[in-house]
Design brief:
The chain is mainly α. The protein is built from six helices and two strands. It has a two-stranded antiparallel sheet with strand order 1-2. Helix 2 packs across helix 3. The longest helix has 19 residues. It starts with 11 loop residues before the first helix and ends with a helix.
Length: about 130
């Protein structure tokens, strides 16, 4: 995830760290995360990202040995759904945003979304 000038896209490092944490079977140290994302980042960079994610309440941590182990607060699907809801928060053009999103879906994703919405509607009526 880089921009035209070869720089990382905003949020790319956090996304890589979160992907490693979501893929893990348990809590990871900063060194574990560094190894999982390829080791090209300095340990201190990975540690700083984890600290920032903890400050944002995206990950939890506990002391283990001389450092900490980290794990995500939410699974990947829940976090993505939260981001999607946040994109609509306080928007005056919610319908336009939803319309553009729906139009961008391929047919299989649109069919899944229709089925999920129908199921949600049935639950609301019950």
């Amino acid at each position: 995830m880089t921009t035209k000038d070869g720089r990382r896209a905003p949020g790319a490092l956090e996304a890589n760290v979160m992907a490693a944490l979501w893929a893990a079977e348990g809590p990871l140290t900063a060194a574990d995360v560094q190894r999982e994302i390829g080791g090209e980042l300095a340990y201190n960079t990975v540690q700083t990202i984890l600290i920032r994610l903890h400050e944002k309440a995206v990950v939890e941590r506990r002391r283990e040995g001389r450092g900490h182990v980290y794990w995500p607060v939410q699974d990947a699907a829940t976090a993505a759904a939260h981001q999607m809801r946040s994109a609509l928060t306080d928007r005056t053009d919610r319908q336009a945003v939803l319309q553009q999103f729906a139009a961008s879906l391929d047919e299989s994703d649109a069919a899944v979304l229709r089925a999920l919405l129908a199921g949600t509607e049935r639950k609301r009526r019950s």
